[in-house]
Specification:
Two copies of one chain form a homodimer.
Chain A: H1 7-22, H2 29-36, H3 40-46, H4 50-73, H5 79-93, H6 104-111, H7 117-144, H8 153-174, H9 178-195
Chain lengths: 199, 199
């Protein structure tokens, strides 16, 4: 039998979609109290500030996203499959988001210019984690001969993330997954024609 | 001699970078009072609500962005030049933003899920304006034989905007214009190799 979640974990799970949908400044501790049914004392018993709760909520949201990537990348055998699996995760994202309100990294990147510097740093780290994964995958592809020589792994990581993140923004703005489908189609075409070694 | 700006225009010009940097929910009417030095009565004399002021500030920000595009597109002679000019505007954007805080359309797209539906609608319209411009440009290029037959103008508009917007997010998150340069390099390469008719 699973243990019931602690109050702390339950607060975080309920706060995560709120922060992700409305941004750090758009959520007040009163909103969290309303969502959780906790009184002020009960809430501040677990989190001494909104800043602290927002960080915990971000970590929670990121874990949901990371789980999607781990799941998709666990069974890939080649560098090509790994890159295509990342496209697949993002394609699923627009119709079945792992956490309500879109991508927490993207939202935080756009949102918290100076409101919460620690949150911004965490968003950078989370984006860098995926960027590093792509970079290493591309390098492995080059080393094994699966990918062309002379590719710039940094540039490919940057291109994939920019295109997918921008497509997520457009798909969300228009509530239309076609923008993501087109981005994924383009990147898959690019990978097949300009990343994979010609036979 | 230019007339001194009206108080209303001056409020809007000062509110625009605040809203653009912190988002709709991140700015209070008190912040606007502090920035403009106006008292409550003076401010509410011009704007009956924060909602109304935020919309006016967004229109102001959008005008600064639109001016950049008009300037860059005024002298282009061909569809290729027009598409490359759009890339140039975005490349300049990351080092010399027309309004502080990044792109107002992008920020509003990510920011105002449900906080301010009218603002979201305006962001959609502004994004659609640029999307339509690209779409029409691509169609003209196809019609004149400058571009390949069989291109999908919608897909190209979507791809350009997604890639450039995503690159703007990454460049801002890392405070590093290289992400935009790579996106622009990729799109320029794509335009030359897959959009322009082979000679």
């Amino acid at each position: 039998m699973r243990r019931a979640p602690t109050t702390r974990a339950s607060i975080v799970a309920q706060a995560a979609p709120l922060f992700n949908q409305r941004g750090y400044t758009g959520v007040s501790m009163s909103d969290i109290m309303a969502a959780t049914g906790l009184k002020k004392g009960g809430l501040y018993n677990h989190f001494e500030s909104k800043e602290q709760l927002a960080l915990a909520a971000f970590e929670y949201a990121i874990r949901q996203v990371r789980r999607r990537f781990i799941e998709a990348l666990r069974t890939t055998q080649t560098a090509t499959e790994s890159l295509l699996a990342i496209l697949g995760v993002m394609q699923r994202y627009v119709v079945d988001p792992p956490v309500l309100g879109g991508c927490p990294v993207l939202n935080t990147a756009v949102d918290s210019d100076d409101a919460h510097p620690a949150l911004r740093t965490r968003a950078q780290q989370a984006m860098t984690e995926l960027q590093d994964y792509i970079r290493v995958t591309v390098q492995q592809g080059i080393d094994s001969g699966e990918f062309r020589d002379g590719l710039d792994p940094d540039a490919i990581a940057s291109l994939l993330l920019a295109t997918l993140d921008g497509a997520l923004v457009l798909s969300k703005l228009y509530d239309d997954p076609r923008h993501m489908h087109r981005a994924v189609d383009h990147l898959a075409w690019y990978i097949h024609h300009n990343v994979i070694s010609p036979k």
